[in-house]
Amino acid sequence: MERKWFKGDTHLHTTNSDGGLTKGQLVEYCKEQGLDFIIITDHNYNTVEKSYYDGDMLVIQGQELTDDNGHVNIWGVKVPEEPPYTLNTREDYEKIIKKCKEAGATVSLNHPFCSMCGFRFDIDGLYCDCVEVWNTIQHSDNMINRDWWVDQLMAGRRIPAVGGSDFHKEYVPGVKLLISCPTTIVLAEENTEAAILKAMREGRSVITNSPNSTMIELTCGDAVIGDSVPFEQGKRIDVKLTNLFRYHKVTVFNNRTPIFSFNSGCRKYKEYAFSCEVKEKGFVRVEVTYEYKGVAKKAYKFAEEKYLKCKNTNGFPPFIRAFTNPIWFE
Description:
Blueprint: E1 4-12, H1 23-32, E2 37-40, E3 52-54, E4 57-60, E5 62-67, E6 70-75, H2 90-102, E7 106-109, E8 130-135, H3 140-154, E9 161-164, E10 183-188, H4 193-201, E11 205-208, E12 215-220, E13 223-224, E14 228-229, E15 236-244, E16 249-254, E17 257-263, E18 269-277, E19 282-290, H5 294-307, E20 319-324, E21 327-329
Parallel strand pairs: 1-2, 2-4, 7-8, 8-9, 14-21
Antiparallel strand pairs: 1-10, 3-4, 5-6, 6-7, 10-11, 11-20, 12-13, 12-15, 15-18, 16-17, 16-19, 19-20, 19-21
């Protein structure tokens, strides 16, 4: 079956935990954004008892296992325990994740290095199907998530990346800033719970700023993101971008090494396509980044430190507008 792209938000809250909208209001809000699927993940509460469609939009069952020591999204099945959960140690997390996985869940580690609610123990080797690299509007903690994710890829641990808005409510009336920011765009055979979650587990996702923001398609012949192909000298990948914004930089990474870069300068591109050669075994992924400068940089740095408690331990980095999961070259 031919795969298609489906736009979704994997991390959403309602009034059943600490969100500002009822389930019905949230579903309508997401439909207005043009999303194909959403996952409602209230804290320690199953708002969606069974996945269903509201019009053409798929609403997937989910729950965010929540404790001071870290947050984990459970998608597709009900958590096989009743809250309150015991999540005091890494071993406690391992036990409940194991039960969820045995029940058929897809497991995502949420915002692992968030300054306000990241994990308080070492997550290396902790079981997961995905990791939420991009959480809510872009900020410095997400770049730490990205760096950890790349370290895992370099170590051969093929953990797919996803993004989630972690939406609770809009803080500026009339401004839709936080909903579906970011958007996870999934390459799946159909818009069903099974197909969407399977595609995310296989790493067939592109994460971008919003439903209509920059999109990246990365291929190698018939291979797409999530696939493995034999490495050969002269092997090339093809990249197609849509809605590339002004002063954004496109970088192709072969493992950690940039093998192609392009700066859009003062021009916005409706489409931009190119091809480049893969230099070595490992993986290839694509990233689109941008930088704040001058007064805007100072203002954004102040805002994220004040409201998101970002520590900026790595300085104030370029931010990601969109990125792909890898194609693997063996």
